[in-house]
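pasting for the record
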Amino acid sequence: MKRLALSLCLAGSLMAAGLQNRTSVRGSYLEARTADVYVGACFANSEAGLVGNLAVFGWHIDDGAFEGINLDGLSVVGVVKASSTLGDVHAPAPAVKSLLIVDERATPEQRLALAQFAKRMGGNLLRDVVNVEYQPVGIEFENNDLHSRKATLTAGTLAKIQTRAINAGDKVCAHEETLYNPLTKLDHAMPAYTLANDYKGSELGTTWSSPNKSSAFVGTFQLND
């Protein structure tokens, strides 16, 4: 009987530890790169290998915990510089250097969890992080509608994205389509028109401003372990 009680106690402790370290996170996402993602194939081919190697992307966590650390209301942003066009399935995977911008409101424990969460979601794009900055970070959708394409990402003085819906007047030809996938796995994604895509930091050896392109995605994500 004592052995049974001890076994049940140990099992309960292991289950509790597992629940404490559980990952269940959901929220909104925004990205913009320097190549069109909603475009005619002929125009996409003209950009491939020349542009589209720079991008800003970020996650806002509406609620949830990553490996047991609560991240409600916090955000994290990645900025990347690749050796060639991001997402080009006809070319080898590019070498990428990246910068992480973590919400300065986070506690030290949350900052570490946000960085690990971003690396998990960003995969190879965030494998070579040259620096981590702590800045005010915000991702907002018009009227808090996560299906709206009118959204803004700000990461202190370093990076900014502003988007709206793609209009008929934005189309160059009559057969535009979504030719690239988002840079990270999403539950729901929509291409959007980029009003601002700026990076002003020094860590990646370049800065950019790439507005007025159909080069953004807005969406939602959910990660459960």
